[in-house]
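User: I'm preparing a small set of examples for a lab meeting where we compare how different chains pack in three dimensions. I only have the primary sequence for this one, and I'd like the structure in token form so I can line it up with the others. Please keep the answer compact; I'll paste it straight into my notes.
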Amino acid sequence: MRYPKVVVIGGGSGLSVVLRGLKHFPIEITAIVSVADSGGSSGILKKEFNIPAPGDLRNVMIALSNVEPLIEEVFQFRFGKTSSIGAHPLGNLLITAMTEITGDVQIAIKKLRKLFNIKGKILPATLEKIELIAEKESGGFIFGESDIPVPGEKIKRVFYDGEVNSPAENIKAIKEADLIVFSIGSLYTSIIPNLLLENMQKALKESRAEKIYICNAVGQVGETENYNVSDHIISINKHVGYDMIDKVIVNSVRIDKDILDRYKEEGSTLVKIDKENLDKMRVEVIEENLIKIDNQKRIRHLSHKLGAAIYSQIDNLENFYDE
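Assistant: Understood. Below is the structure token output for the 323-residue chain.
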């Protein structure tokens, strides 16, 4: 029996939301995870132990766990703030410790996946300790992922200082993929950093798998203020050097004005689905009911709806699952 192979690329909380829904479907999941984080616990551990940032890897391990509530409680546990290790989630320390033991973060994640019965492959985007750099439209540069979003400052591009490549296992996953998905999340600090790796760009261009982008419902302050859906895709395509995205999944649920007004006060606006521009770009638009409003009146994507929307886009399902 062969299950469809789905590769999901991203970082931050958005990637975890997508994976929580997708793990319930009969597929082989590979998550390629950004390790560009430079803030908080991840930034401290990256600097002190000379390792890729562990934070997004921790969150993906939680999302793909078969006993998610228990693993989340353990992995997110922090000792008191006055403790010498109070700044660090236990999951970050476990990843750091296993990396120290094995000498390789990729091997460390494999061993932790086995230990905690975690579904799917989890692959760091690179094994190198990297620093993300942003060039602003104003001409200035900002160093470090956590400092890049600045309200009112448009980002021209993000890049690394020097050539950075992706591990061979990541390239193999792309070559074998039946579907490649780019997650919701911060466009310039969670999604695009995975696409700056030279051998990854080449593998994506050579892959015949459909490439689907899941667009955020609202813009992110300091990154995608006043962006339409097409603006997100134009930026992705610009960073990889060709028109890569085949389809985009967007939210179809109408959001009440009072909710949008609240976001507008914070600097965020609704991401408009500009179908005319997307048609010109030959990007197919898939509209789905993807969001809910939580008790704090915040817009939240529904994991199970995201998973179903992605699964429905796998071509030729009749060719899979047969003994």
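A couple of notes for your slides: The longest strand covers residues 5-10. Residues 5-34+125-315 form a domain with the Rossmann fold fold (CATH 3.40.50.10680).

User: Perfect, thanks.
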